[in-house]
Amino acid sequence: MNLIISYRIFFICFFCFQLFSFWGCKSNVSPVFESSTLPTNEQLKNSRFANFITKLKSLPEKERIILIEKFLNDNSAAPIIEDSILACFYYYSKTSSVQLNGDMQYGWAKPVEMEVVKCGDENFFYKIYSLPSDARLDYVFNIDGKSIPDPRNSDKTPSGFGLHSQLAMPLFRQDPIRITRGAISKGTIDSITFTSKKSKLKPRSLKIYKPSEYDKLSNIPVLYVNDGFKAIEYSSFITIVDNLIADKKIRPLNIVFIEYIEGDSEYFLNETEEYLVAVCDELVPFIDKNYKTSHFAKDRVISGISAGGHVSLLTALKRPDIFLNAAGQSSTITTELLTALSEASLNEKYRRSLRFYFDVGRFDLISAPNNQTFLYANQKLRDQMKNLGFDYHFNIYNDGHQWANWRERADDILVYFFGLNAE
To answer: Distance between CA atoms of 142 and 111, rounded to whole angstroms?
Structure first.
């Protein structure tokens, strides 16, 4: 089996196992998605692509090739978007079957066989979805056990699982804050190694961002980013910070980008106390000793995605003496996290001081065998935070579980915690 597919299956099953024990198989759950991705009969009736398929099927098999060739000449780019809501995927090849997989397929958990129309020696495969007009989703084709980007879609995006094709519906707008600028002052990066002596965490590299006027500053707020090296590579994080500081939208800050080491998911989800000891009792004091950072918990933020989001939120809840701020994107939600939230609410001082940012995709991962999703789990977290009186910012976006989605909100996190009006 292809390595990418195998890893995805492991990844999804791992989180399914984690949350199956959380809600159990008899829980009341929301649907996989709040609205169906199946087009309505009325949408298909008005679809030029659907009408083309109907006409193609009406022809004798040997006569379909001429119509297909004209279609391919007129439609060199895929997928075809109609009326801002229909996404029409197609693939033309001699292969006998093609699967479509992506964020719209239950968070990559359920690839679908594309429908096929035989055209002589070749086959025309297709699939139509009805999607929100501002959705941004990743997808690939599965052919003969291999995952490949759509050859007719030039818009590719890195994912951590190789290149994906990007589907951007008409109202999606890429955030221009990610564009590198040449005429602004830029921060510098230190590269160091961190070794924990009090926990089982393996040594790992760190990259420390220092703002351009670092030498003139003192008591600098600091952000700790789990899986930080991927945040740099896939989320344009350093460029975003430089641009926001130059635009005077955020205070100058230090950022500690923490390298992800294989096996860290165990510390992010299960052996969390080991992680808290390493970060709170060793890494933070080390950074405060060697950099001009503020030593107040209110000036520290910790953030992450997926399992890294889980441990980030948990760190602030369990160690508010060190971190009073945390952000999680598409965070894994566990009983440990919800229990920590309830326990933290009992301390009135910390409950009033803690601040949280978290978001999730409407097409995020399935998280349990009974069709619960990351969307549903994060909504439960939101409801509990609201009921307990915590200060939080929460949003649902029409996207999935991808770096290409998370990077669009990196500036939102930075402005929320470090904006000049955020103090």
So the answer is: 8
Distance CA 144, CA 336 (A): 41
Q: What is the pLDDT of residues 236-292, one digit of tens each?
A: 999 999 999 999 999 999 999 999 999 999 999 999 999 999 999 999 999 999 999
Sequence-distant (6+) residues with CB within 8 A of 296 are none
> What pTM was estimated for this model as a whole?
0.89
For residues 258 and 154, membership in a common domain is answered with no
Q: At 169, which amino acid appears? A: M
pLDDT tens digits, residue range 172-225? 999 999 999 999 999 999 999 999 999 999 999 999 999 999 999 999 999 999
276 is written with which tokens? 């808290």
Helices 228-235 and 237-246, packing angle to 10 deg: 70
Whether 16 is in a domain gets the answer no
Q: Which residues of 209-234 are buried (b: 16+ CB within 10 A; e: fewer)?
A: bbbbebeebeebbbbbbbbbbbbbeb
Domain that holds residue 107: 38-130+135-168
Domain count, the chain: 2
Domain end (from 122, 148, 168):
168
> Residue 40, CB half-sphere, CA atoms under 13 Å: how many?
5
Residue 335 domain-assigned (yes or no): yes
- The CA-atom distances, in angstroms, between 205 and each of 196, 259, 261 are 12, 6, 9
Joined together, the tokens standing for residue 201 give 């965490």
* Cis status, amide bond into 369, omega within 30 of 0: no
CATH code (residue 372): 3.40.50.1820
The kind and range of the H/E element at 255 are: strand 254-258
Residues 150 and 226 in one domain: no
User: β-strands 254-258, 204-210: how paired?
Assistant: antiparallel
CB 332 within 8 A of CB 306: yes
Residue 121 one-letter amino acid? D
Let me know whether 225 and 354 are in one domain. yes
Measured CA to CA, the distance from residue 304 to residue 301 in angstroms comes to 10
The verdict on residue 6 lying in a domain is no
Tokens of 359: 């978001």
Q: How far is CA 360 from CA 164, 282, 394, in A?
A: 20, 31, 8
162 with 259, same domain: the answer is no
Are 149 and 182 within one domain? Answer: no
The answer as to whether 27 is a domain residue is no
